[in-house]
Design goal:
The protein is 18% helix and 0% strand. The chain has 171 residues and is mostly helical. The protein contains 2 helices and no strands. The chain has helices at 2-12, 20-38.
């Protein structure tokens, strides 16, 4: 129980600099615990529900090809993180800080990214079908060959973004 509480405290605490080693470990362990709890593992004492990674400080994290399916991050700080090839299906990143994030080749089907800041992000080859990107601040984002079929881009700021060979059906 104590390790879970310590983990949560470290996950949400701001670090002086973006230490990708700590952020990467927190992201990997938090995702593993979330999936175990969903599969029926014992819930840590003191856990009142919600996500272990909600509003976590994960700037600079490196976690390629990770399963983050359904995790609710809320306004977490993932600035400059490299999550290429990651499964973020149905993830919640409402108001997330994603500037400079690398989501190249990631799956973001039905992900909720409304009001997130993702300037300079790389979403090349990403699958964003039915993703909610309402009011995102997404200047200079690369959507090279990305699939945005059915994505909601209402009110999105996309100045300077590149949509080369991207699929924008029903958007």
């Amino acid at each position: 129980e104590q390790s879970w509480l310590l983990f949560r405290d470290v996950a949400i605490s701001r670090r002086e600099r973006a230490d990708h080693v700590v952020s990467s470990a927190i992201l990997r362990e938090g995702a593993a615990w979330e999936h175990q709890i969903r599969r029926g593992a014992a819930v840590p004492t003191g856990w009142v529900g919600g996500s272990l990674l909600f509003q976590a400080q994960l700037a600079g994290a490196r976690a390629n090809n990770l399963d983050l399916h359904g995790i609710q991050f809320g306004a977490s700080d993932l600035m400059g993180a490299d999550l290429s090839g990651t499964d973020c299906t149905a993830c919640g990143l409402l108001g997330g800080h994603l500037d400079g994030i690398n989501l190249r080749g990631s799956i973001l089907e039905s992900a909720f990214l409304a009001e997130a800041s993702m300037n300079g992000a790389d979403l090349s080859f990403a699958r964003l079908t039915r993703a909610v990107l309402r009011k995102v601040d997404a200047a200079d984002v690369t959507f090279l060959q990305s699939d945005l079929t059915g994505a909601d881009l209402t009110g999105a700021r996309l100045d300077g973004s590149t949509f080369s060979q991207a699929v924008l059906l029903e958007t």
